[in-house]
Amino acid sequence: MPFVKKKADKEILMALDYPSQLWMEKENQIGANVTRADVREFLQIAAEANIKPEFQEYELKDANQR
User: Fold this and answer.
1) CA distances, 12 to each of 8, 21, 26, 27 (Å)
2) How far apart are alpha carbons 28 and 23 in whole angstroms?
3) Distance separating the N- and C-terminal Cα atoms of the chain
4) How far apart are CA 51 and CA 43, in angstroms?
5) How many CB atoms lie within 10 A of CB 3?
6) Chain center to CA of 29
7) Is the pTM of this model over 0.85?
8) pLDDT at position 26, please?
9) 24: phi then psi, degrees, rounded to nearest 5
10) Contact 2, 41 (CB under 8 A)
11) Contact of 31 with 39, CB cutoff 8 Å
């Protein structure tokens, strides 16, 4: 079953200015009802779209430093 968002949720998400509001987010604090199948589907779509995430590695002791 595909992941479906409610219309109101879509409108709010589409109105976000991702570069200024979410780009520098350091930790994910959002909880959602996502299944393993949802994650597999998302990762497959991301791979097909050639999405390449950028990341920076930290020592574990430094992981939560701001």
Assistant:
1) 6, 13, 21, 21
2) 12
3) 38
4) 9
5) 14
6) 11
7) no
8) 58
9) -95, 15
10) yes
11) no
Given phi > 0 = left and psi -120 to 50 = alpha, else beta, which region is 48? alpha
CA distance 51 to 53: 6
Q: How many whole angstroms separate alpha carbon 55 and alpha carbon 25? A: 12
40-48 long-range Cβ contacts below 8 angstroms, 24+ apart: 41/2, 41/3, 42/3
Residue 51: its pLDDT value, please?
Answer: 87
Residue among 62, 43, 63, 61 nearest 53 (CA)? 43
Q: What pLDDT is stored for residue 23 in this prediction?
A: 63
Instruction: Divide the 66 residues of the chain into consecutive groups of 10 and give the mean pLDDT of each group.
Output: 68 79 62 81 91 83 75
Contact 56, 24 (CB under 8 A): no
pLDDT of residue 19: 72
